[in-house]
UniProtKB/TrEMBL annotation:
This is CYTH domain-containing protein. PROSITE patterns: CYTH (PS51707). It comes from the Bacteria. It comes from Pontibacter anaerobius. Residues 2-170 form the CYTH domain. CDD domains: CYTH-like_AC_IV-like.
Length: 170
């Protein structure tokens, strides 16, 4: 069963964070120029991510875990590289709520994905996303990984963000 735990924070020094990721031997997967288009839904979030690396149509619920200061994501729909027709079919009649533009540097270290983002109107942020595609790690292990990398990347509790990027604009 798929599981995802995410920590998000403002990043005061992206160059230093990137240097630490290099020291940890994280694999750089490129710079993605992304636009996330959000649509109104009754439950959760529906977004169409358009980028030169990541193209996704995602419907998800994200639950904040206050004791861990992280998020647990429940994915309801996940389509890689959806066709124009598919996006049109899924989003037909839904109101566009927001459009978020960002530059995203993508790094991976085993099952952990790191996003170094420069979000238009917000500044620099980092996301640590521990992913379990098949249930072999378990949520507790994902939480431990997020906490470990939070410490390694010197992320202070005061910089943690509870909200989605879209919520930070409201």
């Amino acid at each position: 069963m798929y599981a995802d735990i995410t920590i998000k924070a403002f990043c005061a020094n992206p160059a230093e964070t990137e240097s630490i990721l290099h020291e940890l031997q994280a694999d750089f997967h490129g710079l993605d120029v992304q636009t996330d288009v959000y649509y109104h839904t009754e439950h959760g979030r529906l977004k169409h991510r358009q980028g030169n690396i990541e193209n996704r149509l995602i419907h998800y619920n994200r639950l904040y875990l206050p004791t861990e200061k992280s998020f647990k994501t429940e994915v309801l729909l996940y389509l890689k590289n959806p066709s124009v027709a598919t996006v049109s079919d899924v989003c037909a009649g839904l109101q566009k709520v927001a459009e978020i533009r960002k530059l995203r540097k993508l790094y991976f270290l085993d099952n952990v994905k790191f996003h170094l983002d420069k979000v238009e109107g917000l500044g620099h942020l980092i996301e640590i996303e521990a992913i379990d595609l098949d249930g072999s790690f378990g949520v507790d292990y994902l939480k431990q990984q997020c906490e470990y990398f939070k410490d390694q990347l010197q992320i202070a509790d005061k910089d943690l963000v509870r909200e989605s990027y879209i919520d930070l604009f409201n």
